[in-house]
Write a structure and sequence with these properties.
The chain has 384 residues and is an alpha+beta fold. It folds into 2 domains: 10-136, 3-Layer(aba) Sandwich (Aminopeptidase); 184-372, 3-Layer(aba) Sandwich (Aminopeptidase), CATH 3.40.630.30. The protein contains 10 helices and 14 strands.
Length: 384
């Protein structure tokens, strides 16, 4: 970090504490927000970055503004040698980028990204991919269009013009991530009968916090097995599950965490949470905030429930039993949503290339609105 930076100069900042401080102050989810949103977002940003210091080397690339302020920037992350293979599904020798802030012009975006490309060349990277965010298994994407329903948990907001900045710079679309919102009373779920489930050897087991070592291992095994061949997949482990449980513990209500077993083997997993974003969509006064907190944390009522971990072991793919497992999970989600007064069930982060699950959701709810986030990739040109 240079002490003599000039206005309009691109800087690289590698000090982790300084990176966390700056992004926590300048991230678009923080700027202009009320105190509650700022507090939650800053905590989330710090947790996301610190949780990955053992696997990623971070560098903030930013444009110097007036005085000591930064005008705009982007966080980059290079996998450490021992974690190189973990990120291979993002492309050849990838460098990740994310936590964008402040880009108000294409000129400033190009200035920053040109230095990001130089940094990638210096680190001998071949692919630049993002946006990433460690709290949601790395892939989060940029909003592709105006949202069709209020953005909820794990659905980042961002200026739509950033899409044009990325495409104009030479990025191409690597993948799109869908979040569907199913109107539960009008959905056409095909409930699997108890007899059919028994014949298939399927049984659901509700999980309670804290998860046991065996349950954490089963969650990881099912999730990793089911997603390992997908674009952008990053393997999860027990530490990741522990971090997830700590972060979402206040809203992991009873009935929101399940494992599906076929005989003695776990073959499906689902973890859901209420849409806590309703607390922070505007700036409620003390009375309204207390009422919302009471509603969400004491009375346990929510507008929508969000399934954010959904996995099916690989041997169940393309089978009738596998389809039945997913239907059992979604149908249980309907029952739980009704228990908590939620009208909507959000199924999120399905890949656009995952045609089977997308067709299944469209069968249940043909008119379900969908929020789309886009992941972008750039082939890093050889260093001159």
């Amino acid at each position: 970090m240079s002490g003599a930076s000039r206005n309009g100069e691109v800087r690289r900042i590698a000090d982790l504490n300084e990176i966390i401080r700056l992004i926590g102050r300048l991230h678009p989810h923080v700027v202009g927000s009320g105190w509650l949103t700022k507090m939650l977002e800053r905590k989330r940003i710090e947790s996301a970055i610190r949780s990955q210091v053992g696997e990623l080397d971070f560098c903030l690339v930013a444009l110097q503004g007036d005085g000591a302020s930064l005008q705009c920037g982007v966080l980059t992350a290079v996998p450490r040698p021992e974690a190189e293979g973990k990120f291979a599904n993002n492309g050849a020798r990838p460098m990740l980028f994310g936590f964008l802030f402040g880009f108000a012009s294409r000129q400033h975006f190009d200035m920053v990204m040109q230095d990001v490309v130089r940094l990638a060349q210096e680190r001998r990277r071949e692919t630049l991919v993002g946006p990433f965010e460690a709290t949601i298994n790395y892939s989060c994407g940029l909003l592709d269009a105006e949202p069709a329903f209020p953005l909820g948990m794990m659905m980042p907001n961002n200026p739509l013009v950033w899409r044009d900045y990325l495409s104009g710079f030479g990025f191409s679309i690597a993948e799109r991530l869908f979040t569907f919102e199913i109107d539960i009373p009008n959905a056409r779920f095909r409930r699997i009968g108890s007899r059919a489930a028994q014949e298939l050897g399927l049984a659901m087991r509700q999980l309670h916090l804290p998860f046991s070592p065996e349950e954490k291992a089963a969650i990881c095994d099912v999730f990793n097995s089911g997603w390992q061949d997908n674009w952008g997949f990053v393997e999860i482990d027990s530490e990741y599950v522990d971090a997830l449980a700590r972060e979402f513990r206040p809203i992991l209500w009873p009935g929101l965490c399940w494992l599906v077993y076929r005989g003695d083997k776990a073959v499906g997993v689902a973890i859901a949470a209420p849409d806590i974003a309703e607390l922070t969509r505007d700036r409620p006064g003390p009375v309204r905030l207390a009422a919302r907190l009471w509603k969400l944390l004491v009375r346990r009522r929510a507008r929508a429930l969000r399934i954010f971990v959904l996995g099916l072991s690989s041997e169940m793919h393309r089978t009738a039993a596998g389809a039945s497992v997913v239907e059992m999970i979604i149908d249980e989600g309907r029952a739980v949503a009704e228990r908590y007064g939620a009208r909507y069930l959000q199924v999120g982060w399905t890949l656009s290339s995952n045609h089977r699950i997308n067709r299944m959701i469209r069968h249940w709810a043909p008119d379900a609105p969908c929020v789309v986030h886009t992941m972008w990739a750039l082939a890093v040109p050889p260093a001159p």
